[in-house]
From TrEMBL:
GO terms of biological process kind: positive regulation of autophagy of mitochondrion
Name under which the protein is recorded: F-box only protein 7
PANTHER family: F-BOX ONLY PROTEIN 7 (PTHR15537:SF2)
Residues spanning the signal sequence: none
Disordered: annotated segments: 88-123
Listed Basic and acidic residues bias regions: 98-118
UniProt cross-references to InterPro entries, sorted A to Z: Fbxo7
Molecular function GO labels: protein kinase binding
Protein source organism: Geodia barretti
Highest rank taxon of the organism: Eukaryota
Amino acid sequence: MKLRLKLGSRRLSVVLPQTTAQSSLQSVRQHITESGLARGTCELSLNGTDALEETRSLAELGIVSGDLLHVLCRDENDDQADLPSHVLARDNFQPSPHQEENLPQEKEGDMKMQRSSDETTMSEPECQLMPDTMSHYQDFCQSLLRLVPEKDTSLPHLTQTATLCTALHSLMLDAGFTPVENGHLLNDTSAKWSYNTPVNDEIRVHLACLKMGHLLSVHGMAKIKEEKVTVSLSLQVSTHVGRDTKTGLWILLKPAELAVVFKDQVTHRLLTNIRTGI
C-alpha cells in the first residue's frame, strides 16, 4: 500500500509492502517509527488534529492507497523539519527539486555524501520512501498502458473513448472501490459503473462517463443519508488516448497524469464526502 505522510513541514510518500486494508493503524505507525521518520511518541490523523484509533483497521477507518496521513508528535519541537541525513539515505529518499532548493547548502552536501556511501550496503527497508510526485503512481499506471491484450481475440478492440473509460474504472478499483455485479455499461460514447465503497459497504457509488464532442464528461455520484453528492471532471480524450504505432490499438499516452488528476478530482473527493457524511 502507498500512503502520503505529512510530518511537520515535510510531505513524503511511503510504500508499505506488507500493509493491506485489513492491517491495523498501529502497524502503520510502527513502520513509520521503526524507519526513523518520527522520533518519540507519535499518532496518526486524517485531519491534522484528531488522532485516529490505532486498534481499528485501515478499511474501518476508510483509509485507502494514496491517502494523506498527518503524523502528530507529542513533542512540539519534533516536527521532523530536519530528518537526519542517515535516515534519508537508508530509506532511499530523494527530495523533490523544490525541497532540495530550500535545504541549506551544507546539509544538502552532507546528505548527498551520506546517501552515496550507504547505497552499496543498505538493505531493502520495510518502509520505502519515494518523492511525493506523479511517480507515486507510475507502477500502477504501467498496467494501464495496453488495456486490451494483443493476443486476446475474444474481446473486441476498445474504441478511443472506451479505452479512457476503462482506465478510469481501473483507477476506481485501485482506490479500493468494489464493482457491483451487473452494474456496468460500456459502449463507444458512454460508460457507467456502480461500486461498493471501501469506507461503508452500504453506500453505493456510481461513475458515469459521457462523450461530448472531443471531451469526456465524468461524474461520480453517491447517496449519503438521503443527500446526493456529485463530483465532476472533464477530460480531453485525444490528450490521454492515442494509437500504438506497432499494434494499432488505443493506449494511454499520459497514464501518470491521468491517475493524479482523477484521484484528486474524483476518488479523493468522493471518499472525503463519504467520511464526512457518515
